[in-house]
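Can't attach files on this board, so I'm pasting raw text. These are the components:
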Amino acid sequence: MAEFWDFYLLPALIIVGQILLIVVPLLVAVAYLTLYERKVMAVMQLRKGPNVVGPFGLLQPIADGAKLFFKETVVPTGANKVLFLLAPMVTFILSLIAWAVIPFDEGMVLADINVGGLYLFAISSLGVYGIIVAGWASNSRYPFLGALRSAAQMVSYEVSIGFVIVTVLLCAGTLNLSGIVLSQKGDLGLLNWWFIPLFPMFIIFFVSILAETNRHPFDLPEAEAELVAGYQTEYSSMAFALFFLGEYANMILMSGICTILFLGGWLPPADWAIFTWIPGVIWFGIKIAILLFVFIWVRATLPRYRYDQLMRLGWKVFLPFSLLWVVVTAGFLVYFDKIPA
Amino acid sequence: MIISTIAFYLFAAMTIASAFMVISAKNPVHSVLYLILAFFNSAALFVLLGAEFLAMILVVVYVGAVAVLFLFVVMMLDINFAELRQGFLQYLPIGGLVGIILLIELILVVSGWVLSPEALDVSSQVAPLTSGLTNTEQLGQIIYTDYAYLFQIAGMILLVAMIGAIVLTNRKRAGVRKQNIATQVYRRPEESMAVRKVEPGQGV
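---
Top answer:
Structure tokens for the assembled complex are below.
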């Protein structure tokens, strides 16, 4: 019995504890990201934003959550019940399980696997199922159109995301995410991070994750002027809330991946004492918050892309460019004998 | 050890069950979803074997790309599947025959039948694995170093197939209005707009 406890039960309990330590702060972050977005947009548009519930509107996300929780879940007649309810769960779960391999600080990672980069790519390429199944199971026209658009869009932009990841992997010489962050460590601090030598890829990656998370200016799946609310049209209550949480958790996740690949993960921007005192988790959070600010900034600034322009950008601009850049990077590394061991 | 054995039987059973559901589900969309479940369970089996790179590639390529296209096509198609099923009994004997041949071949391979000593030599010459490397690096060495030319040829064949598919299906349609992005970007307000003073009752 003692053996059973030592070898199976205790490790299992520790892992469950670690999972809770990741998921609970993540969900709080998601809740406050909605407030962050509304406040930032309000300031950009010279409004005040939510300011009634709690001091500075700080309790607004909780009020929103409680409201959604007490609504009735409506399943439309003619909808495929099982798939209709499964789809939001898939979206939500996929946005959570990717965090298993994200390193928050040196050694602070739930699963430090060798193929972390591929795992993230695999999980993010699955995100499309939640949306396409939701659109189909709703048995309604607008959701179906929205789902088809979204599937095409996510598949298109994943290709260039894949090539961007490949370039970073070539330079870092490892698929392990902690290894990628450590490959950016050096005396120059900020200047050692991959966003300087791979600046065009950084831009392509950022634009592609906007498309991958269905955010402005690529939010065609839920373009309200044409499609009511896209794949979410028939959803209400907690099912809708799961989509919402999933979308925002994905935004944080994608910003996290961008931080790890290009912005040095948990590393401080310079090796000065005042910076190294601050723990790596805080640096990681700050970098994610900056990228999320850009997400919101883009939303407040740019008009929506037209569908053919979106497809053109993905296939005719980003794909050839990132492919070329992979070849150029690989050629550079081989010619100057800089391939990481 | 016990855990991994339990996990193996769980994933293996799930793979077979979902593979069976792929061919027996009434709704084709459900079939594709069961296919995805089967892919996932096979990926889990790869992980149990310690081949995590293959597992991830299986998920990325088959679940993330191929199955999405399947789902896409199956959702868009308007086929009467009840009609398709009518020939089931008619095709059962030939399908069963193919299945039996495949089963016999598998048994021959697994039970180690040797037709000639040379064949045994070939089958025992598995590519040597360099120990101490992760399986990603080992696969990379074998594919991109030892068998680089074969890999290139495989790539060329796929490229030819892709171009062929595009050539066969691409057709020029008349009357399609396309936007020339360069022209659009170089447009200036002076060229495309005119401000006129419109007199009442006269129009432009």
